[in-house]
Design a protein that fits this description.
Largest sheet of chain A: 6 strands, parallel
Number of helices of chain A: 9
Shape of chain A: globular
Largest interface: A-B, 62 and 62 residues
CATH superfamily of the largest domain in chain A: NAD(P)-binding Rossmann-like Domain
Distance between the termini of chain A: 40 Å
Strand content of chain A: 5-15%
Strand order of the largest sheet of chain A: 5-4-3-6-7-8
CATH topology of the largest domain in chain A: Rossmann fold
Helix content of chain A: 40-55%
Number of domains of chain A: 2
Order of helices and strands of chain A: HEHHEHEHHEEHEHEEH
Structural class of chain A: alpha/beta
Oligomer: homodimer
CATH class of the largest domain in chain A: Alpha Beta
Chain lengths: 209, 209
DNA sequence: ACATGCATGTGCCTGATATCACAACCAGTT
DNA sequence: AACTGGTTGTGATATCAGGCACATGCATGT
């Protein structure tokens, strides 16, 4: 089944399912049906079964899915059975907040390098023990620390330059918080997080919807 | 044309177009073709023309679009020809970073209220002049300040409760940073911002893609 | 005033994505 | 051992979104 094209939306939903399943593991729920999980995630039950069907068979007919097993399987599909090393650029308010954010480490994401071009900040030691490096050292430090995913928290006009530096390492996956579209060659992947785009959606909804 | 169902993806793209157009206004570019704008935004030129066609005709054949006019029109479509009042709950690292973030005010979003249930934080005056209120006062303060959009930066287990309080005000649009799915009745809208979902996508890409 | 070049606006087609509905199948009960 | 209730897995169907390609129409130059 792995030979089919998997829709990007499916991957996103798998991630959402795993959040819900984590909650169930904490609650001690042993088994869940696609119906129950669907209600929690706000999707159609058939959608869940279809999404899972891309990767195999995980349920028991007449019963449902064993929560712990399904969570394990989904995490394995997503590649979360290992820790991922993150490098972050731009130690402003947002960058620092992300570093301190607990959800990352909880999910197996670990910051291994931090950068800023403000010489006032360079050399400062952060609460996590990380030292802020100047951006010139990005390529070297990323290689030394084994960074796999780059996080961009710079102003928009710097974002493309930073991205290009990451490409040289090469760091093949980028999480971009700057409100610009970043150009990368094939094989690389950028995910954008743009709060104001989300807010604009809400504003539209309030205005026209 | 306004009677058609507008795809949510179209609204999201309009928002992205407006970012690119803002850059062009700064650069002094007077006119842009769908091709040029498409390259900047990473979409197909026909896509842009289709998206705009939902709302009318904005271009000049043989010429393109006048940047300032198009930006104005798109902002009007999105409902950004007014300021929007935001209320934020959860003054942790992330919440504080969002308050201080410049992109919001630049786009006409203004924080008018802040809340936290930590009594150590309540009463503290923030750099913006806002005072942190206890969550019990959410309904009252939101009404007094005219909050229109709620921003949730609490831990996941508190998110649904906060959302319910917002619904009572009523604040009809929520921006949710907690990694849970929030249930709201018809007429209300939730937009989720979940970093780890995005990271999971990257992890999958690095693992399987 | 006419011809030419060029970019828009849009009908149509294609492909992808979500939903429905049913057969396959398991567990517990009679 | 057969039956029943319930849930999965999946083929078929419907819906939606994206891309092509051409006619439309404006601007410039002759």
């Amino acid at each position: 089944m792995k030979y089919l094209k998997i829709p990007a939306a499916t991957i996103t939903r798998l991630s959402i399912y795993s959040r819900a399943l984590e909650g169930m593991v904490e609650d001690g729920t042993p088994v869940v049906s696609s119906k129950t999980l669907a209600d929690l995630c706000g999707v159609n039950p058939a959608q869940i079964r279809k999404d899972l069907a891309y990767f195999g068979q995980f349920g028991v007919r007449g019963v449902g899915y064993f929560v712990k097993e399904l969570l394990f399987d989904i995490k394995k599909i997503l590649g979360l059975n290992k820790e991922w090393n993150l490098a972050i650029v731009g130690m402003g308010n947002l960058g620092c907040a992300l570093l301190a954010h607990q959800n990352f480490s909880k999910q197996g994401y670990r910051f291994v390098a931090a950068f800023d071009n403000d010489m006032m900040k360079v050399g400062r030691k952060l609460a996590t023990g990380l030292v802020i490096h100047p951006i010139d050292e990005l390529t070297k430090v990323c290689r030394d620390t084994g960074a796999e995913i780059g996080v961009i928290c710079t102003p928009p006009d710097k974002a493309q330059d930073i991205a290009s530096r990451f490409l040289e390492v090469p760091v093949k996956a980028l999480l971009n918080f700057a409100p610009v579209q970043i150009q990368v060659p094939d094989g690389f992947k950028v995910e954008n997080v743009d709060f104001t785009v989300k807010l604009d959606n809400l504003a539209y909804h309030l205005t026209a919807g």
